[in-house]
Write a structure and sequence with these properties.
The protein has no helices and twelve strands. With 171 residues, the chain is mainly beta. The protein has a ten-stranded parallel sheet with strand order 1-2-3-4-5-6-7-8-10-12, with no helix packed on it.
Length: 171
């Protein structure tokens, strides 16, 4: 384990291996977590046993506990992720509210930032798919694409929109 910063990786026990924590309180709660990279203040802060995660940026993957195989790059990217796995979020608050949703790719500032328990979405572009909470299997590519779509119950929406603002009025 490699640790730099105040309380970085301070809870790692003998079972946690191959972790890198850089920044104040980065990977602070890790006990037996393995193969994580946390760079930035409070990145992967509450991760206890989740492994193979990368959190770059202040509070990236902040609430992650047991989620694995996630990549979060940017301020508060995947911040609310608790147990979800196999998500990729890059950009300011990208995927910020994802808690248990899996297999999402969210790239761009505020991309998919309201998703909670939604699976298999692709949102590329600032504010793409930014209002949806529970819709799954949508593809939104472009600035503001599908920005108003919001399924409030678990729904496989299968919507695909490509282009600046396309589907912005779809609810």
């Amino acid at each position: 384990n490699t640790r730099f910063g105040l309380d970085a990786g301070s809870s790692i026990e003998s079972g946690g291996v191959q972790n890198t924590a850089v920044g104040s309180e980065a990977l602070k709660s890790a006990t037996t977590a393995d193969n994580n990279v946390a760079v930035g203040q409070q990145a992967l802060y509450t991760t206890t046993t989740g492994g193979n995660n990368v959190g770059l940026g202040r509070q990236a993957l902040y609430l992650n506990t047991t989620g694995a195989n996630n990549v979060a790059v940017g301020y508060e990217a995947l911040e609310a992720n608790t147990t979800a796995s196999n998500n990729t979020a890059m950009g300011y608050q990208a995927g910020k509210s994802v808690t248990t949703g899996t297999n999402n790719v969210l790239i761009g500032g505020l991309a998919g930032d309201a998703l909670t328990d939604a699976d298999a979405n692709v949102a590329i572009g600032k504010s793409a798919l930014s209002a949806d909470t529970l819709g799954s299997k949508s593809i939104a590519i472009g600035l503001g694409t599908l920005q108003s779509q919001n399924f409030t119950s678990a729904t496989d929406s299968h919507n695909t929109a490509v282009g600046h603002g396309v589907g912005a009025s779809v609810t």
